[in-house]
Amino acid sequence: xxxxxxxxxxxxxxxxxxxxxxxxxxxxxxxxxxxxxxxxxxxxxxxxxxxxxxxxxxxxxxxxxxxxxxxxxxxxxxxxxxxxxxxxxxxxxxxxxxxxxxxxxxxxxxxxxxxxxxxxxxxxxxxxxxxxxxxxxxxxxxxxxxxxxxxxxxxxxxxxxxxxxxxxxxxxxxxxxxxxxxxxxxxx
Length: 188
Prior knowledge:
The chain is 49% helix and 18% strand. It is α+β, with helices and mostly antiparallel strands. It has two domains: 2-67 and 144-187, no CATH class; 70-135, no CATH class. It has a five-stranded mixed β-sheet with strand order 3-2-4-1-5, with helices on both faces.
């Protein structure tokens, strides 16, 4: 997926851009409108009639995973936990059964619960692994994100356009729009 951040002066330009993209039948995976962090300059335009709203998502800067590393980390953590917790339980259960250790029986637990407790310890280690491994991943585009944040603080609207990797962006339409800057975030 290719992600492009288009920086615009006002919301009206963003609506016009998306209308042109739809007319040209550009296959868009996702299109988000991000209101400025300092929304004083275009406050009257943010309350436009929403009956003709063309954006699927309009949100604030800090609610976008692309711009907020904490949201991205929490999402990675959930994804990792769905795999690591069950895997940890199975690994702990298997390890307890293969080694036939009496770790928990020596602590006073019933011998019948030895394997189950081994699975629970494995499950806990999977949860901890998902937490720490998700926190260890850093974003590579820190400089781009700082520039985008600065533009948003200056009162500019952002359009996040996600296209499939094999689709070339419609540069003609993007250049026709009165955009200040187009930033390519990354290709996955």
